[in-house]
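RECORD TYPE: inverse folding
INPUT: structure tokens
STRUCTURE:
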């Protein structure tokens, strides 16, 4: 989000909104699903990690929206079906 890791040095609103959303979703999935080299984080640990990187790696508005979704019971139920 701060432009340090994005092609062409794009940052903030220069990065397409869809890409900013996918960055959060992809990171969340990577953190909460097992990898051969790393055990998964809990959903709450992953949310805290996303918040820690808000404003640098991730768009703060997208992080806030994702956390707001998590506060909704329906969304938490959906995540539980994914066996995270």
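DESIGNED SEQUENCE:
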């Amino acid at each position: 989000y701060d432009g340090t890791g994005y092609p062409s040095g794009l940052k903030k609103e220069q990065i397409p909104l869809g890409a900013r959303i996918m960055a959060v979703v992809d990171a969340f999935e990577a953190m909460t699903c097992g990898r051969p080299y790393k055990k998964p984080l809990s959903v709450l640990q992953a949310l805290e990690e996303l918040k820690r990187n808000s404003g640098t790696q991730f768009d703060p508005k997208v992080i806030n929206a994702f956390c707001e979704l998590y506060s909704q019971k329906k969304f938490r139920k959906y995540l539980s079906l994914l066996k995270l």
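NOTES: Residues 17-32 form the longest helix (16 residues).
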